[in-house]
């Protein structure tokens, strides 16, 4: 997906060894095949290292999907890529739980694990 989305700001992490869980229940986008709206909840979980995602910019980022034609799978994987690029976490998981449409309910999960440093 080559759509330009707003950047996600971060701030310095002051602690180690904890998990952040953010639930975003107002995800909307557009189905690229039908043009119909898609709705869902995005669950972001990650362990910060040096940076923490700033929530106001995260909200702006997610709201920018509103008029984007994108499949569920692509949205979840794009979000993972963008979250990891912004915060460089130890690990990150993004789950999209999308509202029922056409009699089907979809849940998509994408994960990132920071590779161990070589010695």
How would you describe this structure in keywords?
alpha+beta, 21% helix
Q: What would a concise description of this structure say?
A:
The chain is of the alpha+beta class.
Helix content: 10-25%
Report Rg: 15 Å
Q: What's the order of the H and E elements?
A: EEEEHHEE
Question: What name is given to the CATH topology?
Answer: GTP Cyclohydrolase I, domain 2
The overall strand count is 6
CATH H level, superfamily name? GTP cyclohydrolase I, C-terminal domain/NADPH-dependent 7-cyano-7-deazaguanine reductase, N-terminal domain
Unreliable spans:
none
The structure class reads alpha+beta
Assess the beta-strand content as a share of residues.
35-45%
Q: Based on the structure given, which CATH architecture is correct?
A: 2-Layer Sandwich
Per DSSP, the total helix count is: 2
**Shape assignment:** elongated
**Which CATH class applies here?**
Alpha Beta
Mean pLDDT figure: 94
Number of domains in the coordinates?
1
> Biggest sheet, in brief?
4 strands, antiparallel
Euclidean distance between termini CA atoms: 36 Å
Main β-sheet, spatial strand arrangement? 2-3-5-6
